[in-house]
Amino acid sequence: MIDTLSLIFLITFVICYFTYKYYIYPLYLSPLCKIPGPPPDHFLLGNLMQIIKSEVGIPHIAWAEKYGGIVTYRSFLNKPRIFITDPKALQHVMVSSVYDYPKPPGFIHDLKPLLGNGILLAEGEIHKKQRKIMNPAFSFANVKEMVPTIAKVVHIMKDLWIREIGDNEKSQIDIMPYLSKATLDVIGLVGFNYEFNSFSSKNELAEAYTMVFTPENRRSFLLRLLSNYIPFFNKLPIKFNIRIKEASRIIDQVSNKLVTEKLDKAKLGELEGNDLLTILIKQNEQTATKDKMTKYELKNQIMTFLAAGHETTSVAVGWALYFLSKNIEAQNTLRNELLEAFPYDKNFIPTFDQINSLEFLNCVVKETLRVNPAVPLTIRTAKKDDVVNGYMIPKDTPIFLFINTIHRLPSIWGSDASTFKPSRWLDPNISSIQTNYTYIPFLTGPRSCIGNKLALNEIKVMLAILIRNFKFAEIDGFEVKSKLAISLRPDPTIKLWVEKVI
């Protein structure tokens, strides 16, 4: 039995240990203390509550403006977090030493069931190998061929909206479910030559992604936070975990079916088409045996295509329409450009060259991705001790890249940095502002988004057809905020007044 003195000693030791580990060391002795940043708001939660209460990346704007291009703040139990906005630091982490800054294991663990261990999550030599094999599938030549397919899917959605408006002057439409189905059908066709038919039939895969990508409320945010601190939390049989597990099962099942069908055709010499998976399999067959992707790796690429290829695009188009509904002048300017380019045919199928010749459409897309990038944040972790901008970064330090913070810095973009203003891209001096480190909606360097050309053209085609055929206006009293649910989704959704263009 423990005597009183021993018990007092034990309690004192535990208190001293936790005080040192979670307060004294991180706040006063860690090498990261030399990096400037805001003081913690809470002795245990650090700056976490301020972050949770705000839209993602917003508090970091003020911190970056006040403390500079490399800032430290505190998370749960005063764990230090670094975020960088300085171009030199970004170049170091994203380009010159990119493979010394992999994604954190916990980050990969959380996303792998949904995205697969494909090119998005692969690291080091595996990533280099996969990127080399996959590059031809995303060439300009292939993307050009995909534009008509994208347009045909968007016209199906357009016709559904016309039917929903009917004989009314206008109608309130929740656009996000439509956009999600459209982009899922697009990636099905251009990615795998497979028809998901999301608009005409109940789609298990679409429902799975709805479960995953619905904006997280405060409670589920805290649940995800807990999963990083409590062992086996992800295995507890609670609704949150069950929902993610079921969605993962469906995504894995569909991905496996798609790759199996393609590989079976390849064995019979019947593999045809220019979809991404067909090109990838053919390229893989021409690769040296030691570098070839296995069936499992190919399946993981499909999981990545499905998630990244439809979720981010639908979100980007949704935000663009929302911003244009609040900026009627910009919307009218864009529509006039489209009416001039496609004056007579509402069912026009644009070519790649036509869609990329529209100057103001390009401005709208670039500005949307600046103000609300579909993926507003990514995380890296130092693989070894390093020095960034003169500061010591110990091994295993998490480094956050808040893309929307970088995109909204007044010191770079001016006092209207947080305002949606497409005309800023018409300024002849914009090239002196926009660099590979001040505008990074698709990141930059070896880890930049391999599908950025496809994504940009899909967004442009969707906006061109929708703005040419409809007028969009905000609904009084309907408020939209952004919430992080892997992508930067609108919360609760985006509902707009939609009116046919006569």
Q: Can you give a write-up of this model?
A:
This protein has 502 residues and is α+β, with helices and mostly antiparallel strands. It has a domain at 31-109 and 375-440: Uridine Diphospho-n-acetylenolpyruvylglucosamine Reductase, domain 2, CATH 3.30.43.20. It contains 20 helices and 11 strands. The protein has helices at 4-29, 48-53, 58-67, 87-96, 105-115, 124-134, 140-165, 175-192, 204-213, 218-227, 239-267, 276-285, 295-326, 328-341, 352-355, 359-371, 403-407, 410-413, 430-433, 452-469; strands spanning 70-74, 80-84, 171-174, 377-381, 386-388, 391-393, 398-402, 470-474, 481-485, 487-491, 495-500. The protein has a 4-stranded mixed β-sheet with strand order 1-2-7-4. α7 packs parallel to α20 and α13 (295-326) packs across α16 (359-371). The model has no long low-confidence stretch (mean pLDDT 90).
Q: Which regions are unreliable across 5 or more consecutive residues at pLDDT < 50?
A: none
Quote the beta fraction. 5-15%
CATH topology of the domain at 31-109 and 375-440, which one?
A: Uridine Diphospho-n-acetylenolpyruvylglucosamine Reductase, domain 2
> Helix proportion of residues, in percent?
40-55%
Q: What overall form do the CA principal axes indicate?
A: globular
Binding site for heme: 449
InterPro entries: Cyt_P450, Cyt_P450_E_grp-I, Cyt_P450_sf, Cytochrome_P450_Monoox
Keywords: Heme, Iron, Membrane, Metal-binding, Transmembrane, Transmembrane helix
Protein name: Cytochrome P450
